[in-house]
Records
---
Amino acid sequence: MVTKPPSEETDEPTEVERRNADVCNVVGSIEMIGSKWKLIVLNDLREGEKRFNELKRSTGASSYTLSRVLGDLEEAGFIENRKEFEAPVASYYTLSERGDALCPVFESLDAWGDDWL
Amino acid sequence: MVTKPPSEETDEPTEVERRNADVCNVVGSIEMIGSKWKLIVLNDLREGEKRFNELKRSTGASSYTLSRVLGDLEEAGFIENRKEFEAPVASYYTLSERGDALCPVFESLDAWGDDWL
DNA sequence: CGGCATCCTTGGAGATACTG
DNA sequence: CAGTATCTCCAAGGATGCCG
């Protein structure tokens, strides 16, 4: 949104410059995943494939909420769902490639927590 | 200083927080800043110092919402507030050291947006 | 076990008006 | 300009129950 003057083309633009550039981009991401439960579920799935009730326990979300959040995330392409219809039905959730690409975000957050929490 | 009636964030850890505290502190961070407006305001302040109405315009938040979000963020130590009482009163907001340390998170988010948005 | 339907409560958040 | 005070509306989300 903010246009900034051209500059040296080193690998590393100035901080201010870079910040001005990405502010808008980030808002789009926030609109998609910037809700408490979506973040928590995505973060939780970094540990690997999990089933519904497993996620329910580890995240603390109610089944109603979890169901909707998983639906939203799947629809938006952040996670994938594999179902087993046999004997005890099971539903496994994993991060999609798109969702997995968010890991650095959570890692940054984790690093921040180490220093400031 | 004190967050008023509507949304009050207690310091009491939730069940979820307690359960996952030692596993990963991401959840704690999410509890603190994982709401749409907090993320948007923090992200916006990466551009540098801004005043109230400036933030109001750039984020699109109402003054009511913005006022509360800024109060919460300041109370939690993510931002700092400098006031000028002269002629036209002015109130400037900037990221604190603690808040600035979150920049890598937004940079990761931006990088993700470049690839997947 | 997974997960949708229903009810119900809470708070997130806009619009508007007012004050120092 | 920088907020605060209300009033109001609606979505988020917990609890419960049911069903394949």
Note: Residues 103-116 of chain B form the longest helix (14 residues).
---
Amino acid sequence: MTRNGVKLAYISNDAAKNVTYKKRKKGLVKKMSELSTLCGVEACAIIYPSTCNSHPKVWPSAVTTHRMLSHFKMLSVVERSNRTMAQERLVRQRIAHADEKVKKLCENNHRKEITQVNLDRVPKSHIPPWLETESNLPNQGVVFDEDKSGGWT
Amino acid sequence: MTRNGVKLAYISNDAAKNVTYKKRKKGLVKKMSELSTLCGVEACAIIYPSTCNSHPKVWPSAVTTHRMLSHFKMLSVVERSNRTMAQERLVRQRIAHADEKVKKLCENNHRKEITQVNLDRVPKSHIPPWLETESNLPNQGVVFDEDKSGGWT
DNA sequence: GCCACTATATTTAGTCA
DNA sequence: ATGACTAAATATAGTGG
């Protein structure tokens, strides 16, 4: 766009494609969040780079996307998530236990010690406030429609 | 936008909201299809109108979306599992190492020591790093992600 | 409600540092 | 490859039918 008329075709040049990808992804995300804010809708998207070994990108967040997908009645994402969290708790326990052990040993030996367990960076999700309401979500009967109608409900 | 500066806030007026919704949804879909075409990515998006009994709208099509979600599900299970296990092993190693260290220190017991066990960034497993977000529309997909990196693969 | 039509705001391809 | 800048292309809030 912009300089010359847009050529709506696949960009073979990797560097150029990457730049365009990043720019447009950013713009797309912005548009999406705006739509969500303005109209109070829950939305998510998934993008699969064509490269075989690449990972999918999701928006607005992994947590939100998973939750939406689960509501989609297609995936038991919630269960998987719970399992993951359970594992995380287990890891935390182990760390705490190890820490405790170290502490005791050192104290018993009359030594100074500094034990620092940094567990920050635990997932924080950008979940819009209005997403919290269960009642907002469609109960079921997921019907995929390309929605030509565009109507509200 | 356009006439006056955009007020990025929820539109309470139903009629106005509906109009904006339709217009912006259309634009979003277009952007999505363009991203797909230009960068060769597969993308899909799901939007849930907040109204309880409404159906979600999806892009690009029911079939494509289903296929992508299936793929997403599989990836999630495998990758997540692998990653979690890898992290658990890592934590085990670190704990073992810390224990070893403390043991030596205590045994030697000749002078003061400072033992620092830094286990930062351990869990974080809740959301795999490779999970990013984005979104798209029309006949293709949309992806939105938290991923600031924006890298290609 | 749905279109078509702007006048402007926003997005972005290309370019340079 | 990343960031800033800019000119041009697009998207869209208002508006009227």
Note: Helices of chain B lie at 14-39, 62-108.
